[in-house]
Amino acid sequence: MMAADGQRDMDIAEALQINSKTVSLWRKRFLSEGVQCLWEVAPGRGRKATHSPEKISELIQSTLQSRPAGATHWSCRSMAKAQGVSKATVSRIWIAHQLKPHRNRGFKLSRDPRFLEKLTDVVGLYLDPPTKALVVCVDEKSQIQALDRTQPGLPMKKGRCGTMTHDYKRNGTTTLFAALEVAEGKVIGQCYARHRHQEFLKFLKHLDKEFPAELELHLVMDNYGTHKHPKVQNWLKRNPRFVPHFVPTSSSWLNLVERWFGELTGKRLRRGVFVSVDDLRKAIEEFLAVWNTDPKPFLWTATVDSIVEKLSRCQQTLEGIKPGCTSARMRKTKGK
């Protein structure tokens, strides 16, 4: 239409923000083939496909429904050898179809008979917290090891990441009791040598002093025996300010302080070198202090309905898999 108005190729390309050669190509095509060519896909000029759709489908099905002999999963090279293609072809097909045989993720479905009740209770606290109260996620990270490397590592430099020895020396352990205040993201933590109900009671009394006395504290906890010890339960009854909420069994992902434990592990503990337990405790306390200077709250967004729907799909999938049927299907596919 712009060409029909008498505009030059350069002016059309500048107005439409495309290459002038593209304008010239389409104008020549229009002159030679007519208006209909503007709605037709031009034949490709690139390299023709080496493998047919049937071959690609066979490779995908083999990836999903079979295993190589003597191994748990396929690699690019083993699949390439089995299918008679190059490993680069296997890699491209896997990437295009988002297949990652080398990766595996863990899961666990809760069998708690009161799962929905507890889930609704905890998620309700996150999405609609009570007024004049604080929601606090409490848990302990037990058996944190003070690991010292057997040799000094090399620092990071251009073209090379930092290094550390694969072996280590154990210098003892400590247990961190931590409480994440959900609204602001502030974390209160204390290290103890053990993680019995006695230490947990000390930590609860410490929390009682840390937060304003006029506010209720809704504690989100897991079902660890320490949290349900009779002495702990009696103390909670004598201190009605503390309102306990227990997540369902096998559902530690519902406790937001676990997310903070991941931050602690990834940013301070995993690469740390600690010559003693005291050194480890100082590192944890330092991380806590730095975190609380600019705390970042973790925002919970999943609703109860969305969680239940996802877990229902997982349950249906598991129920559809009978014991031994996966192995039988693998053997049958391999025989073909």
Strand content: 5-15%
- Describe the largest sheet: 5 strands, mixed
Average pLDDT, rounded to a whole number, is 90
Helix and strand pattern: HHHHHHEEEHEHEHHHH
Low-confidence stretches: 326-336
How many helices does DSSP assign? 12
Number of domains: 4
What structural class is derived from the secondary structure elements?
A: alpha/beta
Q: Look at the structure and name the CATH superfamily of the largest domain.
A: Ribonuclease H-like superfamily/Ribonuclease H
Regarding CATH, which class of the largest domain? Alpha Beta
CA radius of gyration is: 30 Å
Total beta strands: 5
Euclidean distance between termini CA atoms: 58 Å
Helix share, percent? 40-55%
**Order of strands in the sheet with most strands:** 3-2-1-4-5
Describe this structure in words.
The chain is of the alpha/beta class and 336 residues long. The chain has twelve helices and five strands. It folds into four domains: 46 residues, no CATH class; 44 residues; 179 residues, Nucleotidyltransferase, domain 5 (2-Layer Sandwich), CATH 3.30.420; 32 residues, no CATH class. The chain has a five-stranded mixed sheet with strand order 3-2-1-4-5. Strand 4, helix 8 and strand 5 form a beta-alpha-beta unit. Helix 1 crosses helix 2. It is elongated, with a radius of gyration of 30 Å. The protein starts with 8 loop residues before the first helix and ends with a helix. The C terminus is likely disordered.
